[in-house]
Amino acid sequence: MLFTEKSRRIWLYVNQHRKLSIAVGHVIVLAVLGVVWLSSAFAPAVFGALAQASCAKNDQTYVVRGGDTLGSIAAGHKTTWQKLTSYNHLSDPNRIFVNQHICIQGHGNTTVAKGGPTGNHPVVVGAIHGKGNPFPAGVCTWWASQRYYQLHGIFVPWTTNANAYQWTARARDFRWRVSATPSVGAIISLQPGVQGASAFGHVAVVESVKGNGHVIASNLNWGPDYSRITNVEFRPGPGVSFISA
């Protein structure tokens, strides 16, 4: 096929611009891939940094720590995860980030950071600490170990013979403190049949102690709301003990 000079110039022009278009296309693809990688690698940090909500004057600001869930935060502040989700305009209640600020409506303008190694109990010398939460999610033993870790930075160490009714004996085996006197942040252990506990007993974590000596404890797998974290009132007495490291 013979080219005239004009045809040759047109062909060269088209070919050069085709190569340029391909090169630009490669750059765009690489840029998109870079954005995807950065978002997947740094999304938690970015969202955590951006999620520093400014709470209203009469609200309490809660700073999310490792191990927190919206349900556990709600249980610790006598509200529900649904209310926190709505009030904080969260698109996904299962996705919160370390250092994110959660506004607790009408609880006073105080910044708190529950969880970690600080708590209400001095650690017993020689008490053995757990290395993780071995219990299946959704049962009362899982919540008690998880909540205790959130408050004190310590998981319970017993992983065998560890049904709820066995926790009092196992706590002594691992040199934890067992008492008949309630205290905020302690694990409450109920023997089977005591105050409605099942045949396997029940464990929960004391969130507050009332003036009459009764306690408000956060629970999982209790009563009809077995799949939700709920606050339930219990009273000290026979078959009830309080456990702390």
UniProtKB/TrEMBL annotation:
Determine if Membrane is one of this entry's keywords. Answer: yes
Signal peptide (UniProt feature, chain positions): none
Q: Which UniProt keywords apply?
A: Hydrolase, Membrane, Signal, Transmembrane, Transmembrane helix
Membrane-crossing ranges are: 20-47
Report which superkingdom the organism of origin falls in.
Bacteria
Q: Where is the LysM domain?
A: 60-104
Q: Which Gene3D superfamilies match?
A: endopeptidase domain like (from Nostoc punctiforme) (3.90.1720.10), LysM domain (3.10.350.10)
GO MF term list = hydrolase activity
Q: Which SMART domains match?
A: LysM
Q: Which CDD domains match?
A: LysM
Per UniProt, residues of the Peptidase C51 domain are: 115-244
For this entry, the protein name equals Peptidase C51 domain-containing protein
User: Could you tell me which species this protein originates from?
Assistant: Dictyobacter vulcani
